[in-house]
């Protein structure tokens, strides 16, 4: 099973309109393959043309449910850390379930001065194969002036049964008491009709 994510997916969702998109490190594809009773999630990461990479830069995949400890791998020069919250570059605010693991790969190799190159495959095992929506954030440097540049983009992660926090996460169903958007729309359309029906009854 393989899901291709276009670089255009790096553009921000409307809910995050005040944050930077594009630039940074971007996942160009995510592949899921069975492996010894678990599932290997492989993220192919690219460095865009106008970015450079140096030691200390990193990216984080949020809410990776069912992570199998010690299973992650990365190209030479990268090291993994696992945490429940962040780390997140400044001025970015991705959804981050505190019950689920975040995977952060940090770079410690030589500076890569220009982008539009693939950085290789980064992978980790999960107990689950079902895809859910989540986020990837990254911190790199601009080639034009050497200043830091933080970005956020959409990606997919494993979710567990039900796709809810504690059993899944990563874009599951709304919590109890929060109406679905469709329900709100129907309610908004229905109220004027109820009022009209009452007026017609009074006139009759």
Descriptive notes:
This protein has 204 residues and is mainly beta. It folds into two domains: 2-173, Immunoglobulin-like (Sandwich), CATH 2.60.40; 174-204. Helix content is 11%, strand content 36%. The chain is built from one helix and ten strands. Strands 4, 5, 6, 7, 9 and 10 form a six-stranded antiparallel sheet that branches. Strands 1-2-3-8 form a four-stranded antiparallel sheet, with no helix packed on it.
Q: How many distinct beta strands?
A: 10
Helical proportion, percent range: 10-25%
* Biggest sheet overview: 6 strands, antiparallel
Strand content: 35-45%
Euclidean distance between termini CA atoms: 62 Å
Gyration radius, rounded:
21 Å
Q: How would you spell out the order of helices and strands? A: EEEEEEEEEEH
CATH architecture field of the largest domain: Sandwich
CATH class of the largest domain: Mainly Beta
- Kindly report the CATH topology of the largest domain: Immunoglobulin-like
Number of helices: 1
- What does the average pLDDT come to? 77
Which stretches are low in confidence, meaning pLDDT under 50 for 5 or more residues running? Answer: 1-22, 165-202
Q: From the helix content, strand content and strand pairing, which structural class follows?
A: mainly beta
Concise overview:
With 204 residues, this protein is mainly β. It has one helix spanning 181-203; strands at residues 2-4, 26-35, 38-47, 51-52, 58-61, 78-83, 102-107, 117-126, 131-142, 148-158.
Features:
204 residues, disordered N terminus, mainly beta, Immunoglobulin-like, 4-stranded antiparallel β-sheet
